[in-house]
Amino acid sequence: QVCAQLCRRPCYCPWVPPRCPRGSPLVLDGCGCCKICARRLGEPCDFLHVCDQSQGLVCDYSSASAGTGATCNFEDDEEGCEVNGRVYRDGEVFQPSCKIQCQCLDGGFNCIPLCQEDVRLPTPDCPYPRRVEIPGKCCPEWICEAQDQHLLRDARAAPGASSPLLRFPCQEWGTEWSACSATCGVGFATRVSNQNRYCRLETQRRLCMLRPCPALPAAFPAVS
Prior knowledge:
Layout: H1 2-6, E1 26-28, E2 35-37, E3 57-60, E4 71-74, E5 80-83, E6 86-89, E7 93-97, E8 100-105, E9 108-113, E10 129-132, E11 141-144, H2 146-157, E12 187-193, E13 202-208
Antiparallel strand pairs: 1-2, 3-4, 5-6, 7-8, 8-9, 10-11, 12-13
C-alpha cells in the first residue's frame, strides 16, 4: 500500500544521477525506480530514501515515535564506527592509510603505526641525516644530505682509503621490550636499540599477543 501511494509509474528520474559524498554509493530508491545516494549511519531515512545495505544499515523507526524521525542504524544494533565516510563493524580491522592499521571497538577505534619511528643520530658515515618521503614508498626513509657526499668523496680520495663508509667501533645497547600494548588480541611492544648496520638509536616494534580476546556475548532479543 505504501509503495502504491508513494511510487509513480512510469518512473521519472533526472537524466544525470546525483553526485554522492564519499562512502555513499548510488542505489535504487525504495520504489526501485531512480538512483539516489544511499543514506549513511545516523542520517535520516524513510521509505524512499533508503540506507546503505552494503554496510548492514536499515532504516530504524524506533525513534520516529518521539518525533525525531527515522535514522539509519545497524540492523542488530551492533556498535560500529565511521572513518572517512565508511562504516566499519565492531571488531573489524582496517587501514585508513598504508601507515596505520586500526580496529573498530565499541563505537571507537584503536590504531597502531606500521612505519618505524626511529631516531637517527649523526654518525661518521652520515653526519647530516634527514628523513624524507620516497615516491612509490609508504614509509619515509632516512637519507644523507648533500654535505655527506663531499665527505665521502674526500674519504675515498684520502691515502689508504679502501671503503666509502668510515668504520667505527659500536657497542651494542638496547632497552628491554615494553609490555604488550593490548591485554588481549594482537598488540605491539617497543624498545630502543642501536643493533643495526649503522649503529644508530631507533625505536623498534614487534607484534605480541598475551591471549586471544574472548568472544563478544550474543545480544539478548528485545522484549516487546
